[in-house]
């Protein structure tokens, strides 16, 4: 087995006196689909925000290792855009598309960190810029085809259906050419048919060489898709392992049952 | 028929305004002579005026509702007239050509005075387009834009006075100075959000003006710098009217260049990043866009145009003093952008022409013109909050089968 | 030391003056997120109304105390009416509009109101009657703190306490806080948001009017332009203290007033405003949401 | 009130008709085009409107006599709001309309901006109120004249008075950071320093419109000044004077033409008592001045406003020069202005080579019992 592409050790995040994340370890190996589950408020999204640089972790270590170049980077304290450049992209739980930009442009934004044209290039449109622009459009269109939105290229993103918006977020993240994709509740609000299509899409993306870390509440999706599962509760990691292992873990059952009883 | 209920409502509104304006409109006191003048006729006019306006606006609303009811469902087909013209090249090109021909023949059709006014208006077009990059496209609320304008103007005034530098040499320098200052200021403040940024830029604009006012050794203080050279044309000596026409063409040229550049910028990698930044900063960063750098570029590019126009302003007026660079000036340029339609080039052009030419032609209203100006600003915003002409995003055409064959039109 | 104390009290008075206007700014901003540029004009209208009423009453021979009370009430009532009307006409239709539209509408309203008063009254400066009497017991310290300074200081303190009480403990205050936090939720729990916003404008405007009366009486003159300059400063103060926060507005105003006073006293009044704005920039760089503003938590 | 409104409508209509006139239509020669430019709206309108009235009265009187050399005089009135950038438009408009001479502009900044345009067009300009010394002393504008003395002359009058008459030793020079006030204050400072008899203990500007002047007043006290020389306009002056009274300070307060205005006394009330201000020499015994004021009272039923006499004088001087020169050619008019004396409300004047009126100067006044009284 090759080296982990993401290795998180002892990650802790405090808000005031509250430990939203408490000493969590996690690792992802190339080609894996890993799920992060846990009851509401367990700290999953906070965990994502720490990974992607939106929050600065209070303690711990986040290391990213590019499987192709073997380049290792410590992500703590890095700006979100730098982290994306390093090859880790994400989607958001509460969809954050660019609402009045077109579907195609949303994906084109994802190409930003992989392209170079600047002020002078934009003004003079020299051959290099033009070529780059064509490549951006081409590649973005290919991604739209992959996620099935190529018929809506010029539609404003806010006019898309909920499921389509979620897919567009994935497409936009893919455009940044990540080797690790973080999906925050990608199936939330989808109907069963859309969920099915999403599962196919995630499998396809994974088969194309992107590793995936996802947060999800849809247990059926998680169990059928994931290679390994990490479980969090009250900011702590309470279990990890294959779907079978996790399913039979008493701590996990207690966390979920406890939640159900409470509700 | 007009319902009675609405008449009653309008009557109540009239009463309310009669009450509201009572102390200011009706009573006029002379505290020295200790006399009071009761101007009851004013109350009558106010009541009558608000009654009529309230009825008219109600009629407008009712008709609008009816129209909206009829049109429900096919909104996308009845695209606004202007939008269609802008989207269709077969309309846009001939129209642009006609505008260009008109602009070029303007000095021959109208008097020197009219040309001079038009030059001023066109300068504001460029200022508006520059600020549009900052506010309209990148969404950074800048209330101190006039500072960069002042930097450009004083660059030329000072370099001309001390080193006898010519207009053409200073034109790029003034722009670059302003852009540099934009970076310098932007660095600490651009991480502020929304309205905090607004007040800091406002303060910065005031600081620049106050420095110009107080630092006599540097800027000659409030009495300003006079006798600034007009722009030359290969050393040619020009008559007075010739000079005005010349500056006019110069500004027309600058407008064309600005439109070209701003248009290209908007439809580039950078322009997309600005738009994305305006819509969602966090998502933007997560997509790998360097927030600070992108904002700084927008800020300093906007400043660059202000600097250029500042140089032209100094050359045109041949005199600069700090009084020309007050907050009101920033507010007017901002109004141009918002009124025209944020992010829309054509909108900004319209906005500038309307806002700058309006007070000139409102001169007939003499002392009422600023009142009208303020009122019109409010009314326009209430009726068209998204501006006169909203931005037309570029659309892309793809041939059905092959993915790569992308052709686009702007 | 004497000089320091003099400057300190001078700065305190100046800060209190800003605070009376800044409170309205901060309330409106807190609730609808709008920089209400016309607020300075409301203050000006308050000053004018009290000027007109006071002069008329004094011509008809009313006693001073009655003049103060009636002029103050009239100023509050009319300013509140203007605030209410302006919100309804120029801001309410724009509540769902793009963010900058209400701002431009406010700038337009500010220009309109200035010229309205200019045309209906005069462009000249007018002498404002001294409504605040010279207290005999203040005479020994009059060279440091005058009677009007005292009244302004006390009023500002009372207004701040009253306002804090109103926001914390009354029904309308609670509704205001709810609306400020989340408009949609406020509607869901049965708060009439339109009513609350109107109330905010009414209260803020009435405060500005009281400020108008006190300040004009302190300075002794008014014209149609006083609102603009005072408004910009008050707004700066509100932002400095953390816009949306009531104690913040007062603290910001006092800090601004003291800074200006000491800058003039120990450096030069040439650069008084440069100091004021530089302070603002510095504070915002290190504390991006002002002195007492709540740090914006990024919700992702 | 009614007639004033009618007047405004009339002026408006005139201005409008000019705005619509295409310049080609006007053929030079049938009339003498007499331009009037200055602030006629905005916050400085009160300084510009009296000039318009003076021009109207003088021109009406001339036309009633049959004009000049058989030509009627036509008024072209333009507003510049006292803003330099607007003033260039105003000047362009007047030049385009074929103006022969211009009475204006009112503010120094606007005048400076407009002058090059008139210079190139060969138009003589005479201001009733632009006092910036550079306008005449720089020698840049051979076409410029004025019927008011320049700021440095005024500052000299103030300083001489402060030192020699009231025996000031420690002088605080305060200004309003404006073009006029600061320029004046700088001259005052220089003159005090040159005299060697007194010292400038403080030289600072206040922000116009600021809500409170306590700090600067405390600073004046701390510096131990016995006299304040203030350069600026009356609103700030009355605020400072009142604040000084509030702080129980009793200093000599000397100010300028911008304060020698009855509005100052009205606004400052009893705090104004004892304040000194320099202003144009008293012309109340001059028959031309008496006639000019009487004409204004008859036409408008009120006392004339600021710079009325200067404007009246300028209009008389300009028209007299055209008459004497027998043409509207710039060189001829300039020569006539320099050589031909003319009786005006500000005295029997001609102009020196730089453009300043010979024999027009300043006198000192003091507020006594609510009135400005000349101090001899």
3D architecture notes:
The complex is a heterotetramer of chains A (263), B (410), C (300) and D (376). Chain A has 263 residues and is an alpha/beta fold. Helices cover 39% and strands 23% of the residues of chain A. Chain A has ten helices and ten strands. Chain A has helices at residues 44-51, 80-86, 103-110, 119-124, 127-146, 162-174, 192-207, 219-225, 243-247, 250-262; strands at residues 6-15, 18-28, 33-37, 59-65, 72-74, 88-90, 180-184, 211-215, 228-233, 236-241. In chain A, the strands form two sheets. Chain A has a six-stranded mixed beta sheet with strand order 6-7-8-3-9-10, with helices on both faces. Chain A is globular. The N and C termini of chain A lie far apart (42 Å). The model of chain A has no long low-confidence stretch (mean pLDDT 86). Chain C has 300 residues and is mainly alpha-helical. Chain C has a single domain (2-286), classed as ABC transporter involved in vitamin B12 uptake, BtuC, CATH 1.10.3470. Chain C has helices at 2-32, 39-59, 64-91, 100-120, 147-169, 171-181, 183-188, 193-219, 226-241, 246-267, 272-286; strands spanning 126-127, 221-222. By secondary structure, chain D is of the alpha/beta class. Chain D contains 13 helices and 14 strands. In chain D, helix 4 (108-121) links the parallel strand 3 and strand 4. Residues 1-28 of chain D have low confidence and may be disordered. Chains B and C meet through helix 1, helix 2, strand 1, helix 9 and helix 15 of B and helix 2, helix 3, helix 4, strand 1 and helix 9 of C.
Keywords:
heterotetramer, A: 263 residues, alpha/beta, 10 helices, 39% helix, globular, B: 410 residues, mainly alpha, ABC transporter involved in vitamin B12 uptake, BtuC, 2 domains, two-stranded antiparallel ribbon, 17 helices, 4% strand
Sketch the topology of chain A as an H/E string, one letter per element: EEEHEEHEHHHHEHEHEEHH
Name the average pLDDT of chain D. Answer: 85
CATH class of the largest domain in chain D: Alpha Beta
Question: What amount of the residues of chain A lies in strands?
Answer: 15-25%
CATH H level of the largest domain in chain D: which superfamily?
Answer: Response regulator
CATH topology of the largest domain in chain D: Rossmann fold
Shape of chain A: globular
Q: In the CATH classification, which architecture of the largest domain in chain D applies?
A: 3-Layer(aba) Sandwich
Question: Helicity range of the residues of chain D?
Answer: 40-55%
- Unreliable residue runs of chain D: 1-28
Q: Could you tell me the number of beta strands of chain A? A: 10
Decide which structural class fits the backbone of chain D. Answer: alpha/beta
- Helical residues, percent of chain A: 25-40%
Biggest interface, which chains? B-C, 60 and 71 residues
- Total helical elements of chain D: 13
């Amino acid at each position: 087995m090759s080296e982990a592409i993401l290795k998180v050790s002892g990650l802790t995040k405090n808000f005031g006196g509250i430990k939203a994340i408490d000493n969590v370890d996690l690792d992802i190996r190339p080609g894996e689909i890993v799920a992060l589950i846990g009851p509401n408020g367990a700290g999953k999204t906070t965990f994502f925000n720490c990974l992607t640089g939106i929050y600065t972790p209070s303690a711990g270590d986040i290391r990213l290792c590019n499987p192709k170049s073997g380049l290792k980077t410590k992500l703590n304290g890095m700006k979100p855009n730098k982290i994306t450049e390093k090859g880790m992209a994400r989607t958001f739980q509460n969809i954050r598309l660019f609402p009045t930009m077109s579907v195609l442009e949303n994906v084109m934004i994802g190409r930003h960190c992989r392209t170079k044209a600047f002020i002078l290039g934009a003004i003079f449109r020299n051959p290099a810029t033009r070529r780059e622009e064509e490549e951006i459009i081409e590649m973005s269109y290919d991604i739209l085809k992959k996620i099935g939105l190529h018929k809506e290229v010029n539609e404003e993103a806010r006019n898309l259906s909920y499921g389509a918006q979620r897919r567009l977020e994935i497409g936009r993240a893919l455009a940044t050419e990540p080797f690790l994709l973080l999906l925050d509740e990608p199936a939330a609000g989808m109907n069963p048919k859309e969920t099915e299509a999403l599962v196919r899409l995630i499998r396809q993306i994974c088969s194309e060489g992107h590793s995936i870390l996802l947060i999800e509440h849809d247990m059926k999706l998680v169990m059928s898709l994931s290679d390994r599962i990490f479980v969090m509760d009250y900011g702590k990691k309470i279990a990890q392992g294959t779907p079978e292992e996790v399913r039979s873990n008493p701590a996990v059952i207690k966390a979920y049952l406890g939640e159900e009883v409470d509700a | 028929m007009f319902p009675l209920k609405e008449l009653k409502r309008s009557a109540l509104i009239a009463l309310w305004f009669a009450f509201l304006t009572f102390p200011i409109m009706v009573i006029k006191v002379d505290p020295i002579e200790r006399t009071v003048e009761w101007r009851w006729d004013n109350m009558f006019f106010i009541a009558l005026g608000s009654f009529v306006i309230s009825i008219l606006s109600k009629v407008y609303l009712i008709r609008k509702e009816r129209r909206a009811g009829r049109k429900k469902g096919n909104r996308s087909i009845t695209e606004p007239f202007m939008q269609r013209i802008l989207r269709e090249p077969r309309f846009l090109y001939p129209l642009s050509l006609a505008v260009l021909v008109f602009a070029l023949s303007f000095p021959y059709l109208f008097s020197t005075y009219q040309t001079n006014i038009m030059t001023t208006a066109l300068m504001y077009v460029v200022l508006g387009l520059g600020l549009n990059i900052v506010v309209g496209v990148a969404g950074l609320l800048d209330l101190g834009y006039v500072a960069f304008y002042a930097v450009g103007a004083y660059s030329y005034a000072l370099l001309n006075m001390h080193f006898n530098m010519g207009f053409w040499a200073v034109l790029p320098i003034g722009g670059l100075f302003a852009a540099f200052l934009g970076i310098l200021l932007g660095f600490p403040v651009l991480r502020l959000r929304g309205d905090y940024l607004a007040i800091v830029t406002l303060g910065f604009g005031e600081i620049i003006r106050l420095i110009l006012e107080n630092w006599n050794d540097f800027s000659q203080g409030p009495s300003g710098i006079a006798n600034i050279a007009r722009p030359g044309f290969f050393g040619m000596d020009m008559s007075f009217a010739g000079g005005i026409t010349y500056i006019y063409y110069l500004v027309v040229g600058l407008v064309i260049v600005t439109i070209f550049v701003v248009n290209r910028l908007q439809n580039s990698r950078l322009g997309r990043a600005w738009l994305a930044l305006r819509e969602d900063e966090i998502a933007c960063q997560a997509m790998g866009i360097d927030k600070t750098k992108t904002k700084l570029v927008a800020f300093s590019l906007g400043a660059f145009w202000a600097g250029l126009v500042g140089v032209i302003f100094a050359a045109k007026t041949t005199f600069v003093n700090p009084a020309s660079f007050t907050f009101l000036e920033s507010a007017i340029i901002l109004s141009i952008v918002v009124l025209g339609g944020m992010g829309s080039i054509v909108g900004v052009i319209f906005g500038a022409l309307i806002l700058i030419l309006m007070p000139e032609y409102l001169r007939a209203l003499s002392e009422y013109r600023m009142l009208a100006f303020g009122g019109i600003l409010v009314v326009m915003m209430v009726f068209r909050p998204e501006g006169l002409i909203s931005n037309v995003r570029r659309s892309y055409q793809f041939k059905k089968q092959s993915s790569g064959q992308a052709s686009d039109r702007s | 030391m004497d000089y320091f104390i003099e400057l300190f009290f001078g700065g305190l008075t100046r800060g209190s003056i800003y605070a009376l206007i800044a409170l309205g700014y901060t309330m409106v901003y807190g609730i609808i997120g709008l920089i209400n540029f016309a607020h300075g004009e409301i203050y000006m209208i308050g000053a004018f109304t009290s000027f007109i009423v006071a002069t008329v009453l004094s011509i008809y021979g009313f006693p001073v105390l009655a003049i103060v009370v009636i002029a103050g009430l009239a100023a509050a009532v009319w300013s509140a009416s203007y605030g209410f009307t302006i919100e309804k006409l120029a801001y309410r239709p724009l509540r769902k509009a793009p963010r900058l539209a209400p701002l431009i509408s406010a700038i337009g309203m500010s220009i309109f109101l200035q010229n309205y008063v200019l045309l209906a009254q005069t462009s000249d400066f007018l002498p404002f009657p001294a409504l605040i009497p010279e207290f005999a017991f203040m005479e020994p310290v009059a060279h440091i703190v005058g009677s009007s300074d005292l009244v302004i200081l006390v009023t500002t303190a009372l207004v701040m306490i009253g306002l804090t009480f109103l926001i914390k403990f009354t029904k309308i205050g609670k509704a205001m806080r709810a609306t400020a936090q989340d408009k949609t939720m406020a509607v869901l729990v049965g708060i009439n948001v339109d009513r609350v916003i109107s109330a905010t404008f009414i209260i803020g405007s009435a405060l500005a009017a009281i400020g108008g009366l006190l300040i004009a009486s302190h300075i002794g003159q008014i014209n149609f332009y006083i609102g603009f300059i005072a408004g910009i400063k008050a707004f700066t103060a509100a932002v400095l203290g953390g816009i949306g926060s009531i104690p913040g507005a007062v603290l910001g105003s006092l800090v601004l007033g003291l800074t200006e006073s000491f800058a003039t006293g120990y450096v030069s009044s040439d650069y008084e405003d440069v100091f004021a704005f530089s302070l603002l920039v510095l504070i915002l760089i290190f504390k991006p949401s002002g002195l007492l503003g709540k740090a914006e938590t990024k919700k992702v | 009130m009614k007639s004033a409104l009618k007047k405004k409508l009339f002026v408006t209509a005139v201005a409008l008709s000019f705005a619509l006139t295409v310049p080609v239509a006007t053929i030079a020669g049938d009339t003498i085009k007499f331009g009037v430019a200055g602030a006629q709206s905005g916050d400085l309108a009160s300084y510009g409107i009296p000039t318009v009235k003076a021009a109207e009265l003088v021109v009406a009187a001339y036309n009633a006599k049959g004009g000049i050399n058989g030509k009627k005089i036509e008024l072209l009135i333009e507003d510049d709001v006292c803003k330099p950038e607007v003033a260039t438009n105003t000047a362009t408009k007047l030049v385009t309309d074929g103006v022969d001479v211009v009475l204006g502009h009112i503010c120094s900044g606007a005048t400076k901006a407009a002058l090059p345009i008139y210079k190139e067009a060969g138009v003589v300009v005479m201001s009733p109120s632009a006092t910036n010394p550079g306008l005449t002393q720089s020698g840049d504008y051979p076409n410029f004249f004025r019927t008011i003395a320049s700021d440095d002359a005024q500052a000299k009058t103030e300083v001489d008075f402060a030192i020699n008459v009231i025996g000031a030793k420690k002088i605080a020079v305060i200004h309003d950071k404006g073009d006029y006030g600061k320029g004046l204050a700088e001259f005052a400072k220089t003159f005090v320093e040159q005299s060697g008899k007194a010292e400038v203990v403080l030289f600072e500007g206040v922000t116009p419109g600021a809500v409170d002047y306590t700090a600067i007043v405390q600073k004046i006290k701390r510096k131990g000044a016995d006299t304040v020389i203030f350069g600026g306009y009356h609103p700030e002056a009355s605020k400072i004077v009142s604040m000084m009274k509030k702080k129980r300070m009793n200093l000599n307060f000397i100010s300028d033409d911008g304060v020698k205005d009855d509005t100052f006394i009205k606004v400052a009330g009893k705090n104004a008592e004892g304040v000194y201000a320099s202003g144009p020499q008293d012309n109340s015994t001059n028959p031309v001045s008496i006639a000019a004021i009487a004409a204004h009272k008859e036409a408008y039923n009120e006392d004339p406003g600021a710079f009325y006499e200067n404007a009246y004088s300028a209009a008389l001087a300009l028209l007299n020069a055209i008459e004497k020169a027998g043409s509207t050619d710039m060189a001829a008019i300039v020569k006539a202005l320099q050589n031909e004396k003319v009786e005006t409300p500000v005295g029997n004047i001609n102009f020196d080579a730089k453009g300043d009126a010979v024999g027009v100067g300043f006198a000192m006044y003091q507020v006594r019992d609510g009135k400005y009284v000349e101090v001899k």
